[in-house]
Design brief:
3 domains; four-stranded antiparallel beta sheet; two-stranded antiparallel ribbon; alpha+beta; 19 helices; globular; Gyrase A, domain 2
Length: 462
């Protein structure tokens, strides 16, 4: 019986790691067309002569930031993932990941990947959203007319190319080359697709949006991995990126853009219909369930929906409703503060965490107050439900309340508010009314039902 064949790229990675000082000496890993680029803590630990003598090493280049090992085109793209995996394994991270994976369902793993794709985009969404809100205010007030076109360009530039960033992050998350994922996703927003006909219709730039970009990048990763396994190393640098972009690009143009466009349109239509016909009920349910969704990690599934609505309509009508969950949390915490006067430590926690809660950062109140006590977590959900119902009711009556970005909530959401009339007084008033409703309902429900007799009469430990 013959021994199994050793992967030469894995063997190269295994040989290189101790020669550069071991896993603890490596701070970063990247690669270009031909070189494995390493950040090192201590370059004196590198065994230069042994490294240069390795058969796979074509040379070594040093600069101020990285130690570059020349492996050649094709080879470096295969050695780098093996090297990164070896680093993780050596440091014990792979063991921790495996332990987490045993407790994770496929659905949770998928949601985690979705979050890893979209969460890095949130800072840009927030920054551009705030600028868009400021620009809308200046336009409504007819102030600084020479400046508003520039602000509009600054606010809109990222959203015009958000599909490209989704493609980059998707390819990175699924183990492909990020720039290839971005290249394929860029097709979605390229103006020239207007000349292409698919399913009997002319395509339009941006059709399919972030969902189309995500699907295109996932397909590109699969094509790239297929090529890496079959294309000879000597041709890899030329053939693999060409086939990846060509195959994934054709499928994107003649299939994914149309399908994703239909799905995106359906999401927008469904959200508009739901709030127009059952806004109060929908708001009550969404506002009441959001905290449990956050606890289970299921809220991550909403991120692509928010992003799709922002891309389509300029704002997401769901976020202001979901933000009411935080208002219920603040009201519940305030009631606990009032009722448990003898619990000085708990009151101190609430006092320090309330300002963050008002600004939409609810974790300190959730994990420090309501969840440990039990009932206040439920009554906080009740407050969120009433606040969400309030905002949903006004959506149903014709006052659309949306957010130009995702991430902030509470008072921090005010600069990002938008609606059918932009950042109008009524939009701000409805959102503020929802927050007040959530505060009051969360406080009342917790004050009356959120604390049992044992908790009220218990003497805190010294």
């Amino acid at each position: 019986m013959t021994a199994p064949e050793t992967d030469p790229h894995q063997a190269t990675a295994t040989a290189l790691l101790p020669l550069v000082g071991g896993a603890d000496n490596v701070t970063s890993v990247a690669h270009c067309m031909t070189r494995l680029r390493l950040g090192l803590r201590d370059r004196t630990l590198v065994q230069d002569e042994a490294l240069r003598a390795h058969p796979a090493v074509l040379g070594v280049v040093e600069d101020d930031e990285t130690y570059q090992i020349v492996l050649g085109p094709g080879t470096v793209a295969r050695v780098t993932p093996a090297f990164e995996a070896l680093l993780l394994s050596t440091r014990g991270e792979a063991i921790k990941a495996a332990q987490k994976a045993r407790n994770a369902t496929p659905a949770k793993l998928l949601l985690r990947r979705v979050a890893n794709i979209f969460v890095p985009l949130i800072p840009a969404l927030i920054g551009c959203g705030v600028i868009a809100g400021l620009n809308g205010l200046l336009v409504n007030l007819h102030w600084l007319p020479a400046l508003t076109p520039a602000l509009a360009a600054i606010a809109s530039g990222f959203m015009a190319l958000i599909a490209v960033f989704v493609g980059l992050n998707t390819a990175k998350e699924f183990g492909g080359t990020p720039i290839l994922g971005g290249a394929v996703a860029a097709i979605v927003v390229y103006a020239g697709v207007a000349k292409v006909e698919a399913f009997g219709q002319q395509l339009s730039p941006g059709q399919g949006g972030v969902l189309g970009a995500l699907a295109a990048a996932v397909l590109a990763v699969h094509v790239e991995k297929w090529c890496r396994r079959r294309v000879p190393e000597a041709l890899d640098v030329l053939v693999t990126p060409t086939l990846t972009v060509l195959v994934a690009g054709l499928v994107t143009v003649y299939g994914l853009m149309y399908v994703a466009g239909e799905v995106s349109a359906a999401i927008g239509t469904a959200a508009d219909w739901l709030l127009a016909h059952a806004g109060a009920v929908a708001g009550f349910v969404l506002g009441g369930l959001f905290l449990p969704l956050v606890m289970l990690g299921l809220h991550q599934a909403l991120i692509p929906i928010h992003t799709t609505l922002i891309e389509q309509q300029g704002h997401t009508v769901l976020l202001p409703i979901l933000a009411m969950a935080g208002a219920g949390q603040v009201g519940a915490a305030a009631a606990v503060y009032v009722r448990l006067r003898h619990h000085t430590d708990l009151r101190r926690t609430i006092k320090s965490a309330l300002p963050a809660g008002l600004l939409g950062v609810g974790e300190p109140l959730i994990y420090g107050v309501s969840l440990p006590l039990g009932r206040p977590f439920i009554t906080a959900c009740v407050g969120g439900a009433f606040g969400g119902g309030f905002v949903g009711l006004f959506n149903m009556l014709g006052t659309t309340v949306g957010s130009t970005a995702i991430g902030p909530s509470g008072w921090a959401l005010f600069p990002l508010l938008a609606g059918d009339q932009g950042l109008a007084f009524t939009t701000v008033a409805v959102y503020a009314g929802g927050l007040l409703t959530g505060y009051v309902a969360g406080f009342a429900a917790t004050y009356l039902f959120g604390l049992d007799r044992a908790t009220l009469t218990a003497t805190p430990a010294p």
